[in-house]
C-alpha cells in the first residue's frame, strides 16, 4: 500500500503490520496498566498534525519506534516476540525509504511537528524504559490509524 | 465513597460490543447472584484516564449500558468499568480492555438495490451509516470513516447455479451478457482492507432479466 507523506511516498505492508499488531494487542496492552498517560495521543492528538508536517512527524515516529520501542519490548512469549520483530522489520524498511526522500529535502520539519515530537519524547521519558516502550507498542494502532486516515 | 466492604462476586466478561460504532458496554451478572443486583458504570478516555460516571447507568438492573455518545470520537480510545451492588455489599470495579472504536467495531452488510434489462443487471450498494445520537444529526457514511472500504458482490444464476464474485471500490456494478428471462440473486459484503474489517454478506436480492423482445 502506497502512503503519501507530504512530497514523499512510501510503500508499507500495512495489512501484515495490522495483522501482527492485532494478534498481540491484548497481550501488550495488558502489560500497560497506566490508563492516565498516552505517549502518542495526549495532551495533543496525533490527528491534529497538519499535512505539511506529516512527512517529518512520520519519519521521527519510525525512528522513535525503531530506536526506542521495539528493542525494549522483549517478552517471555516467543509468539509475541516474533510478531514484534516482524513489525520492526517493516518499520526499518519504511524508515529507510522515508529517510532517502528526506535527504532530498522533501520533508520539511515545521515548528509544530518538532513540538509534537518533543511532546512524544517527554511522555516517553516520563516512564521507565520498559514501561514506556511497552506503552508505545500498545499504541501502535493509534499511529497506524493516523497514517491511514489520510494516506 | 462510603461504599461497604466489597465481598460480592465481580461482574463477568465486561466488554464493548460495537456495531457501526454504536458502542454498548455489556457484562454478565456476578456468579451465583440471583435477582436484585444493581450496577453502576464509569468510563475513561485513554491517556486522560479520569473516570467519568454515566448517570443514566447508575443503579440499573440490566447488564448493558449504551456508551455510544461518550465514545463517539473514534480518534480516541477508551476504557469502561462496572461495579455490582446487592443487599448492602458490592463487587470490585471490573474493567474492559482498551477499546478502539475504529478497529474494534463490527460493520453491517451494505444495502443492495438491483434493477435489470434483458441482458444485464445493475446493482447499487450503500454502506451503513456511523451511529449518530439523534436522527436529525448529519449522517456519516462508514465510507468516510474507512477510505479503503470495498464491496465484494456475489451474483448467482438461479437456473445454472453458476456464481460470479466481483470486488469493487465504487458502489455501482453492471453485470452484462446475461441470459434473458432468467432469475439472478445478488448478495454483497463490505471489506475494509486495513484495519481488516469484513461485514457479513447481505441477504440475497433476486431479480429476473426481461424476456427477449
From TrEMBL, chain A:
It is found in: Secreted. InterPro entries: 4_helix_cytokine-like_core, IL-10/19/20/24/26, IL-24. Keywords: Cytokine, Disulfide bond, Secreted, Signal. Its main location: secreted. The keyword Cytoplasm does not apply. One of its GO terms (molecular function) is cytokine activity. Disulfide bonds join 8-101, 55-107, 56-109. GO terms for cellular component: extracellular space. The keyword Nucleotide-binding does not apply. Immune regulatory cytokine. Belongs to the IL-10 family. This is Interleukin family protein.
